[in-house]
TrEMBL record:
This is Cytosine deaminase. GO terms for molecular function: cytosine deaminase activity. It comes from Luteimonas terrae. It is an enzyme of class 3 (hydrolase). CDD domains: nucleoside_deaminase. Keywords: Hydrolase.
Amino acid sequence: MIATPDYRALLDTAIAEARQGLAEGGIPIGAALYHQDGRLLGCGHNRRVQESDPSIHGETDAFRKAGRQRSYRDTIMVTTLAPCWYCSGLVRQFGIGTVVVGESQTFQGGIDWLRENGIEVIDLQSQECVDLLGGFIAAHPEVWNEDIGED
Ligand SMILES: [Zn+2]
């Protein structure tokens, strides 16, 4: 039996990605895909602004960086913010077993739906994540509304 990973430590990888995104002038949302055994498979951050690509969310970036995996059941998607519908769909499509979110206060995304479908969702309620994204939204509300698909 594998011991429960230290989710806060895993979240630090996603937060570092979010901070890198902010330094690049982008939306500070980061993510990392880990194996349950603690191996980092891939990490990334939202690059909508940097690449002018609305499909690059933290989760999709981490997922792509991880490359092909035989199975996703024993993987953990760690993200600074609750995953949107698009990323929640990715989690279900590939059968990722566990999702760790830094916070779901700013945006709840699809976490109830994921839970209803048997995916373990752990919300770490990180104030650091709330403050990081909150500061960006206050400064650039239009970029944020575009990111979550609101007019
Ligand atoms: Zn997303």
